[in-house]
Amino acid sequence: MIVIAPAFQNRGIGTQLMHDVIARGKPVQLGVLFENHRARALYERLGFLEIGRTDTHYQMIRP
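Structure (tokenized):
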């Protein structure tokens, strides 16, 4: 689980972290809470696609 503390959000930390993970060249799968619209928007900008849902999360993948 990765969480950016609120005091450090909106500084590009999450984006850089995800770029580093994506650069490894392997598919990345994750879950995003339904109410976390900003995180979902970030992942969509980075090329993630929704592949399913649980009771609380969107399931997303970046192939």
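The chain has a mean pLDDT of 94. The first strand starts at residue 28 and ends at 33.
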